[in-house]
Write a structure and sequence with these properties.
magnesium; seven-stranded mixed β-sheet; membrane; 2 domains; Methane Monooxygenase Hydroxylase, Chain G, domain 1; cell membrane; Beta Polymerase, domain 2; ion transport
């Protein structure tokens, strides 16, 4: 099974393991702290989570890349994050969701990316505090490059609002990465539609792979719609009324993506039906030709069988023109049947 065909599943501990147990990942994470506010913007690479949190900040974004169980455990110890939340962070394949806790918001999203081996998903977990946003990303990625550039400008809404707006900007950037993925999948659909009738044997594996990719995106987008809706429904002081307006815009994007995704899934299903219809039609054409050939040879076989019997008294065998006459009868009979079939439109 190729990497593109692997179904992404959440990792679970052995049965009976205590809830909140952090798995050993063996990964070394990198930590970067972006501090911003009235004194400007700074970016600092820290050797550990503890060192990053010890740095002075007005508002900050702690970016942790890599699922390092030691870094995540330190994060929970320093910021009072619940062990079950820490466990969810370290187990990729989570269902996108939003949770409201006493002093922070927890948000999980799977961001898709098309690579050389196929569709991949990167889990991004966000912890939103009053003055800090922590993002834990499964692996290095370019998803938040635009947010970094906006921070580097030193002005804009990121500086006008609190950390909840930074969290919105990160979620919005993650959702926006669905658009180029769906666009490329749409281009693949159009290409398959053009070559389906000419090269249907080669197109079937690609069509099945595309349907699997669309299904994986659907499994990410449907829970994401619920997660964004949950953020809007929850009355949390960490999400200001001004930022809720922008979160509703993210919800609109998710709904629009779902509409596109469903239309692509219907198109892929139609292409599969078209493929099956084409195969059935070609099979019927082959069977019709074979049936016509068999029908033509049926009377000829009868004639040859009659005169192939070993009887001593067959008057036709003694006639000097019997052999060419028999050939003439069979040729006329075959041509007559061909003409009759053609007139009826069977050939």
């Amino acid at each position: 099974m190729t990497p593109a065909m692997v179904r992404r599943l959440k990792r679970y501990h052995p049965p009976g393991t205590s809830p909140g147990t952090l798995p050993e990942t063996g990964v070394r994470a990198s930590c970067e702290l972006f501090t911003y506010g009235s004194k400007g913007v700074s970016k600092t690479s820290a050797p550990s989570v503890a060192a990053a949190l010890a740095l002075p900040r007005e508002r900050g974004w702690l970016r942790i890349t890599g699922l390092d169980n030691r870094a995540v455990a330190e994060l929970g110890k320093r910021l009072g994050v619940h062990p079950l939340v820490l466990e969810d962070i370290l187990n990729p394949g989570q269902r996108p969701k939003a949770e409201t806790h006493a002093s922070y918001l927890f948000f999980v999203v799977d961001v898709p990316a098309l690579t050389e081996v196929g569709l991949e998903e990167v889990q991004v977990s966000l912890l939103v505090f009053s003055d800090l946003v922590v993002s834990v990303e499964e692996k290095p990625n370019p998803f938040f490059a635009t947010v970094e550039k906006r921070l580097a400008l030193g002005s804009g809404r990121l500086f006008q609002f609190g950390s909840d707006y930074l969290a919105y900007a990160l979620v919005d950037a993650a959702v926006d990465h669905f658009f180029p993925v769906l666009e490329k999948l749409g281009e693949r659909l159009e290409g398959m539609e053009e070559v389906l009738l000419q090269q249907h044997d080669q197109i079937l594996p690609q069509l099945h792979q595309l349907r699997r990719d669309l299904l994986r995106l659907r499994r990410s987008l449907w829970p994401l719609r619920e997660a964004v809706g949950a953020l809007l429904r929850e009355e949390s002081p960490l999400l200001s009324p001004e930022v809720r307006v922008f979160v509703r815009d993210v919800q609109d994007h998710v709904l629009y993506l779902l509409d596109i995704l469903e239309s692509y899934r219907e198109t892929a299903a139609s292409l599969l039906e078209l493929y099956l219809s084409t195969v059935a039609q070609r099979t019927n054409e082959v069977m019709k030709v074979l049936t016509v050939i068999g029908t033509i040879f049926l009377p000829l076989t009868f004639i040859v069988g009659v005169y192939g019997m070993n009887f001593q008294h067959m008057p036709e065998l003694a006639w000097p023109w019997a052999y060419p006459a028999l050939w003439a009868i069979m040729v006329v009979l075959a041509l007559g049947m061909l003409r009759a079939f053609r007139r009826r439109g069977w050939l």
